[in-house]
Automatic annotation (TrEMBL):
It comes from Lactarius akahatsu. The keyword Repeat applies. The keyword Zinc applies. Keywords: Metal-binding, Nucleus, Repeat, Zinc, Zinc-finger. It is found in: Nucleus. NCBIfam families: ZPR1_znf. GO terms for cellular component: nucleus. This is Zf-ZPR1-domain-containing protein. Acts as a protein folding chaperone for elongation factor 1-alpha. Belongs to the ZPR1 family. Residues 44-213, 272-439 form the Zinc finger ZPR1-type domain.
Length: 484
């Protein structure tokens, strides 16, 4: 985390600037010392006249966003000036907001030149373009205006494309109803009028975009998720130099058999067909050894044509004789970084917020505790906000809205839990003992974690298909049956 002294809040900088520029008794300005100076000045070459100019650097932190560096250059010889801003904080690339009512259209958006905007309900993707400060309503209005611009020409040249685009424009005009495609003036539309709900996603590999939340970051309609950038994204952002020696994992030669030292490093590739679009794709599988646990198999599928992704985790060991129940007491954010393996037969429970996930939910996952809670939040929020009418158009006394409000309260509690704002307990119950939570004190016992082994019931064995499984003498039994 960046030092707060190095990146002070922008409001504190403004107060410090005002206090250092008060005139003294003799009319002179009281200047700060070099160590206390808010803006750093550096002599630099002017690209216009090649004389020496001055570059001023301001390191500041924008609340609820991240740390930035504001740079300003001016040449006193030719008058040339330039201003720009660069990110200096942590990466926060994906923001998601559920737009359920017209009040949500007023949420402000900071969109950088590397940000991609997506509305899944309309299969609409706005590629990275110029940066802008706007609102959700402004984004929709820009799309309507840009798509409507060449519609008369498309109607003559390509009627099929015209029809598809016009259908999308008509749907968007139900959100921003303006015949000319311009942004609707504020107050021109009844704020209580029904509006089709939709989801707005900002995906910025540089982490320089942002969408406003309401009241606090516990807003159930707002979510933040991070991911690891690929090397291609780092090259596009200029963070990594492109070299010809880089070879993708699935293009690595596999002629040489792996040795004992790197046997677990080999990635196996299986060709297949995408279940979403039918194009050929590769499924990659890798064996991973988890310390103090057992071997697992991680399988990943990624379609380059339609973007379909799937991953699954399987146990690489024999069936355990007993089941396992893991109870972890989470007290701070450090516990959220624990590795967690949740198999497809494992159930998950958080008693403090009455969260119960049955076995099979989310499938097998190998991630962190924060990652599994993030997936649970996304799955639940998408299901509840994607169905039904928007909150603004529903009956305030109706059972649907009351149930939705209760679910929003639950999502706020889940959001507080996944941010470790309050202590909680997570319980993993796996009858096959194929689930795992990282022990931060290994090989010593973890004081915050309890692991209990138990005998499976007959019902659990029946559900897993173990009661009818015969692993000894089955060949002899088949021979006796054939002879008789």
């Amino acid at each position: 985390m960046p030092d707060d002294n190095l990146f002070p809040l922008i409001g504190a900088l403004a107060e410090q600037t005002d206090s250092t520029e008060d005139p003294g008794k003799d009319g002179d300005t009281i200047g700060a010392s070099d160590e206390e100076r808010v803006v750093q000045e550096i002599e630099s070459l002017c690209v216009n006249c090649e004389e020496q100019g001055t570059t001023r650097l301001l390191l500041t932190s924008i609340p609820y966003f991240h740390e930035v560096i504001v740079m300003s250059f001016r040449c006193e010889h030719c008058g040339f000036s330039n201003n720009e801003i660069q990110s200096a904080g942590v990466i926060r690339p994906v923001y998601t907001a559920r737009i359920l009512s017209r009040q949500d259209l007023d949420r402000q958006i900071v969109k950088s030149e590397t940000c991609t905007v997506t509305i899944p309900e309309y299969e609409l993707t706005i590629p990275a373009s110029k940066g802008q400060l706007t609102t959700v309503e402004g984004i929709i209005g820009d799309v309507i205006r840009d798509l409507s611009y060449d519609q008369p020409l498309r109607r003559i040249q390509d009627e099929d494309t015209f029809t598809k685009i016009q259908a999308l424009v008509d749907k968007l005009k139900a959100i921003v109803p303006d015949e000319d495609g311009n942004i609707t003036p504020k107050g021109a539309v009844d704020s209580e009028a029904p509006m089709p709900p939709f989801t707005l996603k900002l995906d910025d590999p540089a982490g320089n975009s942002f969408i406003e939340f309401v009241d606090s970051m516990a807003d159930p309609k707002w979510n933040l998720r991070t991911y690891r950038r690929t090397k291609e994204q780092n090259i596009v952002l200029g963070l990594v130099a492109a070299d010809d020696s880089f070879v993708d994992e699935k293009e690595k030669p596999t002629e040489d058999a792996p040795t004992d030292d790197n046997a677990n490093e080999e990635i196996y590739v299986f060709p297949g067909i995408c279940s979403s679009c039918g194009h050929p794709l590769d499924t990659m599988m890798k064996k991973v050894v988890i310390p103090y646990f057992k071997d697992i198999l991680i399988m990943s599928t990624n379609c380059d044509h339609c973007g379909y992704r799937d991953n699954e985790v399987k146990s690489g060991s024999a069936i355990s004789e007993k089941g396992k129940r893991i109870t972890l007491r989470v007290e701070d954010r450090e516990d959220l970084s624990r590795d967690i393996l949740k198999s497809e037969t494992c159930g998950l429970t958080i008693p403090e917020i009455d969260l119960v996930l049955q076995a099979g939910t989310l499938g097998g996952r190998f991630t962190t505790l924060e990652g599994i809670l993030e997936q649970v939040f996304e799955e639940l929020s998408e299901k509840v906000f994607a169905a039904g009418d928007s909150v603004g158009s529903a009956d305030p006394d109706g059972p649907d809205l009351q149930g939705r409000n209760k679910f929003e309260v639950f999502l706020e509690s889940l959001k507080a839990v996944k941010s470790a704002e309050r202590p909680f307990t997570i319980i993993l119950d796996d009858p096959l003992a194929n689930s795992y939570v990282q022990n931060l004190y290994a090989p010593d016992p973890d004081p915050n974690m309890e692991i209990e082994s138990y005998e499976r019931t007959w019902e659990q064995n029946e559900e897993l298909g173990l009661n009818d499984m015969k692993v000894e003498g089955y060949g002899q039994e088949d021979k006796d049956t054939t002879g008789s």
